[in-house]
Amino acid sequence: MALLKPRCFEFFRFRLATCRRVTYARPMLTDLQRLAIEDGLRDLTHPVTLLYYTPDVASAATLLERALLEEIARRSDRVRLHVLADRWDSAREDLVGIARTPAIVVKGERDHGIRYYGSPDGYELETFLAVVRAVSDERSGLAEGSRAMVARLVAPLHLEALVAPT
User: Fold this and answer.
1) CA Rg value for the chain
2) For 80-100, how does the pLDDT look when each residue is reduced to its tens digit (9 = 90+)?
3) Contact (Cβ atoms closer than 8 angstroms) between residue 82 and residue 89
4) What's the N-to-C CA distance of the chain in angstroms?
5) Would you call 149 helix, strand, or coil by DSSP?
6) What is the pLDDT of residues 94-130, one digit of tens each?
7) Would you list the DSSP string of 16-70?
8) What are the chain's domains?
9) Strand runs labelled E in 39-160
10) Are 162 and 124 contacting, i.e. CB atoms less than 8 angstroms apart?
């Protein structure tokens, strides 16, 4: 297995390893990332499943995203990762509720409709780990007044939350 010189990508470094004509990205986590992952996944109450929908033709970005998700799953016995690297199937994606790939479905014992688009690295790592913890703890994090407003909804609502560092 030949390794290339590590390069810097967002907050973590990675190596590209080539084996049997397939290239895999292996993140080399910083101490800060390792600590954030360990703290974020410590004492999860219920199992969480990550369904990673990725294109059948991988890019450097999706290889890194997959490697980071594999590292997250490896660090907790309560997190399971299933990678679905297939051709776009609009019927399947409509059934699952994803609009584009790559996408990460974060679900516990039931699917709460959480779809994460974008790579959970850099500033988004702690946010992503907070989502995993909320699903594991079966809590929304909403205030009582907000939960009451949501309970009054009579039709499904599509809601997107964007995360940006400030």
Assistant:
1) 17
2) 999 988 777 778 888 888 888
3) no
4) 41
5) helix
6) 888 888 888 999 999 999 889 999 889 888 899 999 9
7) EEEETTEEEEEEE--HHHHHHHHHHHTT-SS-EEEEEEE-SS--HHHHHHHHHHH
8) 31-141 (3.40.30.10)
9) 48-54, 79-85, 103-107, 114-117
10) no
Task: Answer whether 91's CB lies under 8 Å from 122's CB.
Answer: no
Gap between the Cα atoms of 166 and 163, Å rounded: 9
Kindly state the tokens that stand for 18: 């080539």
Structure tokens at 44: 């999860």
> Encoding tokens for residue 14?
């990675």
Instruction: Tell me if 116 sits within 8 A of 60, measured CB to CB.
Output: no
Q: Distance between CA 136 and CA 108 in Å, rounded?
A: 6
